[in-house]
Design a protein that fits this description.
With about 475 residues, the chain is of the alpha+beta class. It folds into 3 domains: about 5-290, no CATH class; about 300-415, no CATH class; about 420-480, Arc Repressor Mutant, subunit A. Helices cover about 40% and strands about 20% of the residues. It contains 15 helices and 16 strands. Strands 2-6-7-10-1-11-12-13-14 form a 9-stranded mixed β-sheet. The chain has a 3-stranded antiparallel β-sheet with strand order 5-4-15, with no helix packed on it. Helix 7 packs across helix 9, helix 12 packs across helix 14 (about 450-460) and helix 14 (about 450-460) crosses helix 15 (about 465-480). The chain binds zinc ion (ZN).
Length: about 475
């Protein structure tokens, strides 16, 4: 029997704000433990929460970009649970009336709509640090700096059917959030966290199987591996005649396996009730509308505009718009020159040389030692024939090392392409003299032998001869000499 998998993702995103969700404590990452706390976020008796408007605004932006309905009235709720990193013993979240609902995100290949059930606002909990060592010396430390940091929880419908689709959904979601500048989405710092609900069922059957919640996936790779593992585990268990238990499992990225953490809580275990310290949140429709009007260009729109305005291939447009900063870098470079070939050559240099180099060193476009005006200058020199493509790579190396502009590098090192007929002829004569075997083969009809002669001229000219001219000159010389 064949099985199919049904996957829904719950993504927690840290909203980029100066202060926490209900107090004015700062949100900076990496501060010394418990240096960013106050009576409100540590839940002292009598302290009252005050809602951060910027966090609401960022969530509304995200909701609109993900085609969600924004509720003009929403309610905060207390989610009760006891855990040492949660000093209030409850988390302020939203339950019955979230800020937004019923949207979708398109994922491609094949184009597919993944429904978004809801996006709600909630506060983060603190962090526990467990010491390692012999049992009698073991203890745990609590750092509450993270307590009260604003999060949005984005819950998808169970519309995802493979680990690859889950990865695609996540990367498109991350891209959108970065375009909106509502979060830095850094998985390593925990500002984007993903849990998955996974079940399997015989293909073609409508009823859902028992779902298992998977936690602790700390990277995009981890999400894909963990989901693939869990699908296999469930199918294997069913084939063995076992029953799937509803539970929460932890992914162990080192061992590449999941293990049971606890039996899954039901919503009623949390005894949700409306937060008595906060009024229902009411938003004016005009305020929501203003945010809608101010939304930036989103990834799919930018990709289409790149296809249309710069006549790029689908692939290049997708790569260049995969990151808002990369797209900005490209446009800043292209704007330097109106030539029609310019967008294409700039795209080639960015997608191959520049990105290749950045990836090698684990850097992003923001770390690029080469600036848009400098890259534009390099592309201009290639198009004008001042330097050959081969020399351009040498110049690019030097630009990467020294951050200097390409014109000064070319001038200083005398790298200008040689187009002069006389000079090329001298090199060609020398190459013919030094490679009698290649000459003989070429004259015997072996066209390929010419490559060796071209290579020899390029070497003699230290890469500066124009390859097109070299080709013509050699052919001319070889046919005259043989007569
Ligand atoms: Zn505080």
């Amino acid at each position: 029997m064949d099985y199919e998998s049904v996957i829904g993702l719950e993504v927690h995103v840290q909203i980029k704000t100066e202060s926490k969700l209900f107090c004015s404590c700062p949100t900076g990452f990496g501060a010394s433990p418990n240096s960013q706390i106050c009576p409100i976020c540590t839940g002292q008796p009598g302290a009252l929460p005050v809602l951060n408007q910027k966090a609401v605004e960022s969530l509304v932006k995200t909701a609109l970009a993900l085609n969600c309905r924004v509720n003009e009235e929403s309610i905060f709720a207390r989610k009760q649970y006891f855990y040492p990193d949660l000093p209030k013993n409850y988390q302020i979240s939203q339950y019955e009336k979230p800020l937004s609902e019923k949207g979708y995100l398109m994922i491609s290949e094949p184009a597919k709509k993944v429904g978004i059930t809801r996006i709600h606002l909630e506060e983060d909990a603190g962090k526990l640090l467990h010491t390692i060592g012999p049992v009698e010396l073991k203890y745990s430390l609590v750092d509450l700096n993270r307590t009260g940091i604003p999060l949005m929880e984005i819950v998808s419908e169970p519309d995802i059917s493979s680990p690859e689709e889950a990865q695609e959904y996540l990367s498109r979601l991350k891209m959108t959030l970065q375009y909106l500048e509502v979060s830095d989405c850094d998985m390593e710092k925990g500002s984007l966290r993903c849990d998955a609900n996974i079940s399997v069922r015989p293909s073609g059957i409508k009823t859902l199987g028992t779902k298992v919640e998977l936690k602790n996936m700390n990277s995009f790779r981890g999400v894909q591996d963990a989901i693939a593992y869990e699908i296999e585990r469930q199918i294997g268990a069913i084939r063995q005649g076992e029953r799937i238990v509803q539970e929460t499992r932890l992914w162990d990225a080192g061992k590449k396996e999941s293990r049971p953490m606890r039996s899954k809580e039901e919503a009623h275990d949390y005894r949700y009730f409306p937060e008595p310290d906060l009024l229902p949140l009411r938003l004016e429709s005009q305020w929501i509308e203003n945010i809608r009007q101010s939304l930036p260009e989103l990834p799919a729109d930018k990709r289409n505009r790149f296809l249309r305005d710069y006549l790029l291939s689908e692939y290049d447009a997708a790569v260049l718009t995969s990151d808002i900063h990369l797209a900005d870098f490209y446009e800043k470079t292209v704007k330097q020159n109106p030539l029609p070939q310019f967008p294409k050559i700039v795209s080639n240099w960015i997608t191959t040389e520049l990105l290749g180099r950045l990836n090698e060193q684990n850097k992003t476009i923001l770390d690029s030692p080469i600036s848009p005006p400098h890259l534009a200058e390099l592309a201009e020199m290639i198009l004008a024939g001042t330097i050959s493509g081969k020399i351009a790579k040498t110049v690019f190396d030097e630009m990467w090392q020294s951050r200097r502009n390409p014109k000064s590098i070319v001038q200083e090192k005398g790298l200008t392409q040689v187009l002069d007929e006389k000079e090329i002829e001298n090199w060609a004569a020398l190459a013919i003299q030094q490679n009698p075997k290649a000459v003989e083969e070429f004259r015997g009809g072996k066209e390929k032998a010419l490559q060796a002669l071209i290579g020899s001229v390029m070497k003699l000219s230290k890469g500066k001869a124009n390859p097109e001219r070299v080709n013509q000159t050699l052919k001319k010389k070889l046919s005259i000499d043989s007569k």
